[in-house]
Structures are given as C-alpha cells and as structure tokens.
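Feature request, filed as a ticket because there's no other form

It would be nice if the structure record came with a short human-readable summary line next to the tokens. Right now we just get the raw output. Example of a typical job, pasted below so the devs can see what we mean:
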Amino acid sequence: MTIYEYGGKILIVDVGVMFPNEAMLGVDLVLPDWQYLKEKKEQVVGIVLTHGHEDHIGALPYFLKDGFLNVPIYATRLTRGLIENKLEEHGLLKEATISTYQAGDRVRVGPFEVEPIRVSHSIPDAVALAIRTPVGIVVQTGDFKFDHTPIDGRTTDLGHLARLGNEGVLMVLGDSTGVEKKGVTESEVVVAAALERVFASAEGRIIVASFASQLQRVHQVLHIARRHNRVIAAVGRSMTNNVRIAQELGYLDIPPGLLVSVEEALQKAHHEVAFLATGSQGEPRAALARMANGTHRQVSVEPGDTVVVSAGAIPGNEESVSRVIDNLFRLGATVIYDAIEKVHVSGHGSQQDIILMQRLLNPKYIVPLHGEYRHLVLHARLAASLGLPPSNIFIVENGQTLLLDEEYANVGERVPGGWVFVDGSRVGTIGSVVLRDREALSRDGFIVATVILDSETGGPIGRPKIVTRGFVFLRDSDEFIRRAEDAVLQTLQQNGVERGDANAIESRIRNTLSRLCYDETRRRPMILSVVTIV
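Raw output as currently delivered:
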C-alpha cells in the first residue's frame, strides 16, 4: 500500500496482503496498518490498483470494511474481475464503487491524474502508473519485467515509458524484487519448453502447482495438456475461481472438454489427466500440501505421478516448500522443481530490466520499492551506479513519509506503518505478545499447576495437581511431576507467602516451577498457575 497526499487529498495505490511466515503461528493473513488513513477518511479520493496479485489486492475487503466503502476503486478489467469476486465473498460488492481503466487512459482522481502504462508481469492486465501531480510526474512501476515474447503478447510499453522520460519524471518508485539477479529475467516461453518436456515424458498423472493468479502459467499448462491429449482439472478454491474468472473475461481461451471437474478427472486413465493445484509455496492448507500429507479429500499422490512445482519459493517459505517436496518424494512421485528443470521464471525484472526502466524514465529521484530491505539497498546502489546522486535516492520503510516538491525531497516524520494480523475472523486482535506466547508454546510446551488452599489456615488442601503438554522433560515423567509438586508445596510453606493473596501465590508458584524446569531440562515452558481459596 502506497499513499500519495497533496492539498489535503489522498490517493492510494494497491492494498495488498503479506502471507505469514512460520513464526506467525495461527495467523492467516498480514495486513498493512492503515491507522494513519482512519484519521483522514474524508480525504481519501481513490484507490488505484496495478494488478491482481494478492500482495496488491488481498487486503482490499478488510480496508473497505474499515470505513472506506465510499472510496472509488480503479482497476484494469482482469483485476476488476478478481476483486469483484473477492468483494462478493465478503458481502461488499453491491456497496463498492469500481471503475475500469486501461493502459493509455488518463483518469482524474482528485488533484491527481493517473495514467496506466502497460507492463509485462506474470498476470495479464498489469500496469505501471504515471501519477501526474501539481509538483510533477511520479511513476510507480508496479511489478514488471521486459518480456519481449510474453504469452499474452502484452509487452511492456517502451514507447510510453520513453515519452514520459522525455516529458520529465520527478520520481520513480521502482520494483526491487529481482535486483539480486544479474542480466534480464527470462521470458515465460522458457517455461513452456520445460513443461512440454515434462508432459512428453510423463506416463502417469501430472500435477502442476503454481500461484492461482499466475494466469500466463495456467494458460500454458492448459494448452500443453491439450496437445498431449490430457484433460485438466483445477484443484483448490482460488485456482478454480481464478480460472473461471479469467475464462469469463476472455483472458483464458479454454476449448470445450479440456477443463473438467476433479471428479471427472479421477475417472480417467492416469495418462489422460493433469491437475492444476494451489500450494506452490508449501501453504499447509493448500491443495499440494494436503496431497503431500495424504490428507486431501479427493486427490491422493501415488507412485508414477509427476508433480511440477512451477514457482520459486518466496523468501521465508523455503522450509515449507522443501518439506512438501520431500513428502511428495516419499509418496513415490517424480517431483520437478526449479532447481532441476526450468519450470519457473520470475515475473519481476532483474538488474538489466531495472536499469532499462531507470534509463527510459530518467527520474530526478528514485525510491526502491517492493522487496526485502536488502533488495531496496541493492536497488539504491544500482541506481547510483547509473549516475543518480545518492542524495536523490531514498530507502524508506513501512510508515516512513517522503516530502516532495518541484525542487526538493526530504524524509519526513513516521506514521503508524506496521502489521495487522488476521486470525480466523478476527482482525487486529492479536499482536507480538500473543505471537511470542504461541511460539513459546510450540517450542517448549506448557505446565499447569493447580492448588487449593484453606481460607482459614492458608495451607494447601491435598497435593498440588500438575499437568504438562508438549514439554520435553526427563524420561521418568512421573518422577519429575512428583518433584514439581514437592517444590510447589515447599513454596507454599515458606514464610512470607501472602495468605489470601491468590495472585501473589500464583506468581511464586510460576517462579518456582520455572527454575525447576530450567535446572533439570534447560527448557522454559509456559507455566500457568491456578490458586483456589476455599
């Protein structure tokens, strides 16, 4: 989410989600913190979207529900179709105001004039944005690469970018994701050749896992399957929905009889069928992970199956992807992934793509955008190597503001800009403290100590009761629990224990058990103590 503000009016570019890493236990989605905007709701004049990937549109329903339903939305046709499906699922479609724009249009949104520019990416209808402001032109590239042989024929519009550069660009906010890779990003046709080899050699079923929104890849798989006389079924809700939407809008041309239901596919001979599945990032609840774990309710992976993981692991997902691949091998499948066959190319430009974008636009200022912090730094260094003064390059993190006019640019004050977690149906109700508790529980388990005290004497009634779950301790667990009970009893009998003060007694019990656990096991389980006075 990027915010542009001028004259008391605010324009928003993209409202995406981040997917949780393995440390974010129980978290379903990570939203941007838009607290700053909640304080300026009446000033927001529009939301413009660059393309339909989840990290650019996924938070839109949550944002609209948080008091922004009156804000008009602008998107290309496919992006509009994807967000309409998303808003309908959230019961928001009838209330939302959505307009369609296309590359080459100029749309007036408050004091801003937004000009979409056609770019190649891994999803059709992606655009960069030239935002004309009273102080100059700002270009936000969105996700892009320079693919001269794209599957859909939509090359990045070099002429449009060059014209903007000649007109004069004040600032570029540029995609930094692929900056670590030298050269140019390969064309999607490279993947087509690899997939052809897979389909030609596989004798059993073929399962291709990819991002559900990677519609160029989906297009290739569909038509390669047809050439090899296989029907294909979509597995996973997002894959099924995206294929349907893209077909309805004309972005996927699917011949009759090629796309079948999973039930129909399972009735076919193995050499006549292929599946398109979600879960290329090892997501535990996605189709591929369930297949790998043997828990998918429809598709079971068998020896003789070929599984293609047609995606690169997003930073932070490497372990999850590796675990899924290992499990697929254990089931006897032939697994093909990027390390052994070119079944994936990035949708993001590499160093030479980024250099070409900078030279075409020739901006006064550059802000590296979209990537891990190291990507921003490397992009900044690359920009400086082309002659841009380091003082004209700004690395800004979430919540950082940038003040800009015709002559000067300066880093401004911070505004709230962290993360908001979605946990089931709850949004923003858990924070770092809850995540730390969950991490501690997952690592060391927990102990519950229950004590009943006599209100008159202050002494214990019977022995304490101690229960453990997930706590790694000595082999003789019964012996450990007996020692823990003895330690609690000894604590209760010490002078200075506050009679009748349940909170103080509970604190002492926790401290006692914490020391005992660490001394004997070098572990620090979560400890809960419950004192009842009768």
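Something like this underneath would help us a lot:
The mean pLDDT is 90.
The first strand starts at residue 2 and ends at 6.
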